[in-house]
Amino acid sequence: MAPRYRLLVLLAAFTGLRFGELASLRRRDVDAENAALMVRRSQAEMQTGALFDKAPKSDAGVRPVAFPTELLPDVKRHLDGFAGAGKDGHVFLGSQGGRLRRSNFRDDWIKARTKAGILADVHFHDLRHTGNTLAASGASLRELMTRMGHSTPRAALIYQHVVSGRDREIADRLGSMIRKTRGDADS
């Protein structure tokens, strides 16, 4: 992935945020101390090409979303090299310094996907599915709904996919809980 868009892809995969939520992030929405993003708005594009920020789909869409602290060096590098200036500067900009658009990102996405040998028609939004499936490990449905910005379980369940080997991990975690309760967690 082009360096300008590396963090965009990482955050999509590890936070499950929508493209519009990521595109509308401002520097003030990034809390590096707590490794979190504050989702306050979502970018939309009119048929005329005009971009505007709107409120998220529901009240549940306004939320803080934590990201792995392992991404902090990437966040700092991106803010230092690619983000707009000032606290209201956009975190993600297009290659010419204007607002990020799906259309000015699509070619980079396809190029990176092809270079990685991913021949299937994988869309950027598929990273939301990946992120939310990864987040499901040990999280309750309500926690996932909050993280995803969903107000209904039905919407949240759309993003849950079966992961190979996951049943063994679940059983092993349950076994760990049994050992801890018995007091023999070290054995």
UniProtKB/TrEMBL annotation:
Keywords: DNA recombination
Limits of the Tyr recombinase domain: 1-172
Pfam families in alphabetical order: Phage_integrase (PF00589)
Protein name in UniProt: Tyrosine-type recombinase/integrase
